[in-house]
């Protein structure tokens, strides 16, 4: 697909917007905030969310632990921020690469490739390592919502981007087959399933067909289009 220079420039000039309340001070507004986010991603990717602390992050970036708390209330909110950023970035890529595709089948296929394909670093956001963030989301995203506070946080809109992405995919599914009765179930299964299958590929390879030769996108394209056969 050919994207005009003007349209590509417009999309690249957009800022990832995160729901207010996830952060106390927008980290995108300062160099320190960007270092907190960028280094935090690398540390969680390396040591896991359980072992990650703001104290360790402060030591890594040469700043007081208290300075990090000026941006995020706690590490749970930090994980919510990272998840919101990731899904916003995925939505940005989805819109960028599908907005000119008119054929419903081609549009849905491209969307599935983006949602379940491998992630490359995006030079538009120099302080974020998207491949590391992708690994963090695969391993840690469920910890952002498998909590007692999930309903309250949902009411606050902390999962709005994820839910909006499900609705975008739902609309593409219904455009291809308006009579399919489970479009929301299928859309949400795809988004959650892409993370699960990539986790299995990396950690439990004996219980998935996905591997280096068979990418997860092949399975999801096959599954979705078989579900939507008239």
**Range of helix content:** 55-70%
Strand content: under 5%
Can you tell me the CATH architecture? Orthogonal Bundle
- Regions with pLDDT < 50 over 5+ consecutive residues? 1-11
Q: Nutshell version of this structure?
A:
The protein has helices spanning 5-12, 31-47, 54-61, 65-69, 75-98, 104-116, 130-140, 150-155, 160-176, 183-203, 216-227. With 230 residues, the protein is an all-alpha fold.
Topology summary:
Elements: H1 5-12, H2 31-47, H3 54-61, H4 65-69, H5 75-98, H6 104-116, H7 130-140, H8 150-155, H9 160-176, H10 183-203, H11 216-227
Helix pairs in contact: 2-3, 2-7, 5-6, 5-7, 5-9, 6-9, 6-11, 9-10, 10-11
How would you characterize the overall build of this protein?
- The protein has 230 residues and is mostly helical.
- The chain has a single domain, classed as Tetracycline Repressor, domain 2 (Orthogonal Bundle), CATH 1.10.357.
- The chain is 62% helix and 0% strand.
- The chain contains 11 helices and no strands.
- The protein has helices at residues 5-12, 31-47, 54-61, 65-69, 75-98, 104-116, 130-140, 150-155, 160-176, 183-203, 216-227.
- It is globular, with a radius of gyration of 18 Å.
- It starts with a helix and ends with a helix.
- The relative contact order is 0.12.
Which characteristics define this entry?
230 residues, mainly alpha, Tetracycline Repressor, domain 2, 11 helices, globular, disordered N terminus
